[in-house]
Design goal:
Blueprint: H1 2-22, E1 26-30, H2 37-40, E2 45-46, H3 48-56, H4 61-75, H5 88-114, H6 118-148, H7 153-160, E3 164-166, E4 172-174, H8 178-189, H9 194-201, E5 204-209, H10 212-239
Antiparallel strand pairs: 1-2, 1-5, 3-4
Helix pairs in contact: 1-5, 1-10, 5-6, 6-10
């Protein structure tokens, strides 16, 4: 039974990592006419592997927007992404929970192999379940203002375009204030509201964590059940009694 516990507990814990990498972790649904799931190189439900692939694809808009965020940080000394996405701290908190989940998995694997303290591994697994719930809560707090429209899409685009871009002929073009200038022109000549126009072009219908969190919770739950079973079996062996 000791050998079995040293195998099953670590393997079950590693299913958490498998869930994070293979199962969809992020649901993104875009209904705009310019920015869509397809243009970003994303499905509606995306695994971490899929997200990394899209971010590294030079032909996807997602890669270009990541560069714009970097440009904004570099071209605005003393500024940060929080200036244009006030809820970004919740995203950092969710990422911190993701790192904690991975660390707890490593602890379960280590203690599962090298220690007989099976209830301690159950405690780590319970902490993993709590961290998963907090990760989802924190991400929802980050995404809610974006999906609900409290963070205006046109303001976000205006902030990103405060840097420079490269024209087809290779010259550097300053984009500072370009969007607000366009907005003034549309308002004066056509009576169009840029905010409403931008939100029709970039419509974020859904932004939330997906199925991977369920897989993580189930894996941690399985670790707890196994730890309890192995602990009870060990006690029965020590007292010379059979289970039940």
């Amino acid at each position: 039974m000791k050998i079995l516990s040293k195998i099953l507990l670590p393997v079950t814990a590693l299913l958490v990592i498998v869930s994070l990498l293979v199962l969809p972790i992020l649901r993104v649904s875009l209904g705009g006419t310019i920015i869509s799931n397809q243009s970003l190189g994303l499905d509606e439900h995306n695994s971490i592997v899929r997200l990394v692939s899209a971010a590294q694809d030079e032909n996807s808009q997602l890669s270009n927007y990541i560069k714009l965020f970097k440009q904004y940080s570099e071209n605005n000394e003393g500024g940060s992404i929080k200036d244009i996405i006030p809820s970004v701290d919740w995203l950092y908190a969710a990422l911190a929970m993701l790192v904690l989940i991975v660390l707890l998995v490593l602890l379960i694997v280590g203690f599962g192999i090298f220690s007989q303290k099976r209830m301690l591994t159950a405690g780590f697994a319970a902490g993993g379940m709590l961290s998963t719930m907090l990760m989802k809560t924190f991400f929802d707090k980050f995404a809610d203002p974006i999906v609900s429209g409290k963070i205006n899409v046109s303001s976000l685009l205006s902030g990103l375009n405060s840097g420079t871009t490269t024209a087809p002929d290779g010259t550097q073009v300053d984009l500072s204030g370009a969007l607000s200038t366009l907005g003034d022109a549309l308002n004066e000549s056509l009576g169009l509201n840029l905010s409403g126009l931008a939100n029709s072009l970039v419509n974020i219908k859904a932004l939330e964590l997906s199925f991977a969190t369920t897989g993580v919770m189930l894996a941690f739950g399985a670790v707890i059940v196994l730890a309890i079973v192995f602990t009870m079996s060990a006690k029965n062996e020590n007292t010379g009694r059979l289970p039940g």
